[in-house]
Design brief:
single chain, 284 residues, eight-stranded parallel β-sheet, 8 strands
């Protein structure tokens, strides 16, 4: 990592691509404005205008085929620095899938859409822990897509898989629109006390009032996670195109830059690039 903060690339640690007819995106409500294709040619001008050098593409469906497709996109587009794909963590043979995906230098992590599981404790009750142990053995990071009811189970996972390198997506989606802090704050603080757990400053405007959110709505939550994790364990993510339900790509990064404006240059370099590059071991 360059010592000159200005030389650390600016990285969007969390965004998605999808082609509606390619995979099953049944998590999208019928008639959702998200239900259209979003590809690299749509994101590239937005991130360039916002001063983003690289981006990490994150899975949106439970399919290794999607991971393969996203890795093909990474091969074809220089700004895609890595892909966080999906594998079946409950599969005793998951190692074979990981062997294949790890042939690509762009495969940098795994995520499961945990927040949508009926059982908030799915992560410890499903057999997924065995898959997470395999990730830890290989040094592959895991994205915890958690909402507040899921948070108490992360320390349980880390007790069983202490070497897992984990990151909490979207600051665990507190109820920003309702200005609710607890029990999110208490439970996330316990997660933040675990060495090696990181957190993405992402996905916030879609948890706020879509029509009327402001930086003042987001700020208290960001400052809480900054106090808990420190800048060296936080990474900015746009959550594009999901963010377009409540605002533009530019609005998302402008809000994050405003809220974190009082950080030192070194801390800003961490949140807006350095942490993601280190955590995902990106070749940037």
């Amino acid at each position: 990592m360059p010592e000159n903060h200005d030389q650390i690339p600016v990285i969007d640690s969390h965004h998605h691509f999808w082609e509606i007819d390619r995979f099953d995106y049944s998590w999208m409500p019928e008639g959702s404005p998200l239900a259209t294709d979003y590809g690299p040619e749509d994101l590239s001008p937005l991130r360039a205008k916002a001063g983003i050098d690289y981006a990490v593409t994150v899975q949106a469906v439970a399919s290794p085929d999607e991971a393969r497709w996203l890795l093909e996109l990474a091969d074809a587009h220089e700004f895609i620095a890595g892909v966080v794909g999906w594998v079946d963590l409950t599969d005793p043979e998951v190692g074979y899938t990981l062997d294949e995906l790890q042939r690509s230098d762009y495969f940098v992590g795994v995520r499961h859409i945990w927040e949508s599981e009926e059982d908030p404790g799915w992560i410890v009750n499903s057999g997924a822990v065995n898959g997470l142990k395999e990730l830890a053995r290989r040094g592959i990071p895991f994205d915890f897509l958690a909402k507040p009811p899921n948070l108490p189970f992360i320390p349980q996972v880390m007790d069983q898989v202490p070497d897992l390198r984990g990151v909490v997506d979207h600051i665990a989606k507190p109820l920003i629109a309702d200005h609710v802090v607890e029990p999110w704050l208490t439970d996330l603080r316990k997660v933040a006390s675990i060495n090696g757990i990181h957190c993405k400053v992402s996905g916030m405007i879609t948890e706020a009032d879509h029509q009327n959110w402001s930086v003042d709505d987001l700020g208290p939550y960001v400052h809480h996670v900054l106090g808990m994790f420190g800048a060296d364990r936080l990474m900015f993510g746009s959550d594009w195109p999901v963010c377009t339900l409540a605002g533009s790509y530019g609005q998302v990064i402008d809000a994050a830059r405003e809220i974190l404006g009082s950080l030192s240059p070194a801390e800003k370099a961490d949140v807006f690039g350095g942490t993601a590059a280190h955590f995902y071991r990106l070749n940037v």
